[in-house]
């Protein structure tokens, strides 16, 4: 009996075993290659915070055509917005981006809700703890709601360089209503050019544990629609406080806002100076409709949260 078993083993075809081993080695190599490829792509994605993302409308324009002309700020380019960081105030003096209907139509990704320091700022940005216990909220300049079309944009919106100290019922009240209204206008007009930020020439106080963050007395937002025949512009100056007034009570011309800020918001956006002068010197609020339902919601609910 042992002899028969030995003869059986000798007659086995070694080619079958060799083939199985080769196939297994190839399968293992393919799996390892796939894991390495995915890891490389993730590293490339996480390491390009200062590059322009091809999927964003913002990538279709020269950044220098959009950014305001402001002295004593460090210009930082992220994928979906740019900002001018004021080290003296530990926040951005301006944030600019293109708000586009196609991106707003994309189902929103999950809100990031993790505030992170902006390592692109050479002098270091403010950090999460500078706001802790201050009584002020970390108010987005480029809103998370405008950046909800992909995870990268959402994460970028939570950089601390994109934050400014806001009174809580202001951030969740009249400022929120203005942000949501701007999104409505982007739906209607395809895309808009937005510059927004704190007015740093008037400061209420300073907060912060390690760095001193200025608390602005006012915030601003300027919006331009330069496509098609119905070109238009509008701006807003809002006090950093709870409000029951309609947002159009705060509407001003872009020229008026620029005079108060002391710098040009859209220096190179339009080639025709006559058109630029017209858009910045006039504001027709009827071209920027607002929601009465949203206003009532703000006054009766948001202001009390």
Structural features, described:
There is one protein chain. The chain has about 300 residues and is an alpha+beta fold. It has two domains: about 35 residues; about 250 residues, 3-Layer(aba) Sandwich (Extracellular Endonuclease, Chain A). Helix content is about 35%, strand content about 25%. A hairpin with a 5-residue loop joins strand 6 and strand 7. The N terminus is likely disordered.
What strand order characterises the main sheet?
1-2-3-6-7-8-9
Number of helices: 8
- Give the CATH architecture of the largest domain: 3-Layer(aba) Sandwich
Oligomeric state of the chains in view? single chain
SS elements, strand count: 9
So what's the CATH class of the largest domain? Answer: Alpha Beta
What is the residue-mean pLDDT, rounded to a whole number?
85
Distance between the termini: 88 Å
Main features:
305 residues; 9 strands; disordered N terminus; seven-stranded antiparallel sheet; Extracellular Endonuclease, Chain A; alpha+beta
């Amino acid at each position: 009996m042992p002899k028969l078993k030995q003869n059986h083993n000798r007659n086995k075809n070694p080619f079958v075993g060799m083939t199985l081993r080769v196939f297994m080695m190839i399968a293992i190599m393919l799996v390892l290659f796939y894991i390495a490829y995915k890891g490389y792509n993730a590293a490339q994605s996480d390491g390009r915070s200062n590059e322009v993302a091809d999927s964003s409308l913002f990538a279709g324009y020269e950044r220098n055509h959009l950014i305001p002309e402001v002295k004593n700020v460090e210009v930082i380019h992220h994928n979906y917005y740019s900002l001018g960081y004021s080290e003296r105030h530990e926040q951005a003096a301006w944030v600019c981006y293109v708000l586009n209907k196609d991106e707003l139509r994309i189902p929103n990704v999950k809100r990031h809700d993790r505030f992170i320091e902006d390592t692109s700022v050479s002098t270091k940005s403010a950090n999460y703890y500078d706001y802790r216990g201050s009584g002020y909220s970390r108010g987005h300049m480029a809103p998370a709601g405008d950046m909800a079309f992909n995870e990268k944009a959402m994460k970028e919106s939570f950089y601390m360089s994109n934050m400014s100290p806001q009174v809580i019922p202001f951030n969740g009240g009249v400022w929120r209503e203005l942000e949501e209204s701007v999104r409505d206008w982007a739906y209607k007009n395809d895309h808009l050019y937005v510059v927004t930020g704190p007015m740093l020439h008037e400061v209420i106080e300073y907060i912060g544990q390690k760095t001193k963050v200025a608390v602005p007395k006012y915030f601003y937002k300027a919006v331009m629609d330069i496509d098609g025949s119905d070109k238009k512009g509008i701006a807003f100056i809002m006090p950093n406080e709870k409000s029951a007034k309609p947002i159009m009570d705060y509407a001003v011309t872009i020229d008026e806002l620029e005079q108060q800020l002391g710098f040009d918001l859209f220096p190179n956006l339009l080639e025709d100076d006559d058109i630029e002068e017209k858009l910045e010197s006039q504001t027709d609020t009827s071209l920027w409709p607002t929601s009465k339902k949203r206003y009532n919601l703000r006054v009766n609910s948001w202001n009390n949260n």
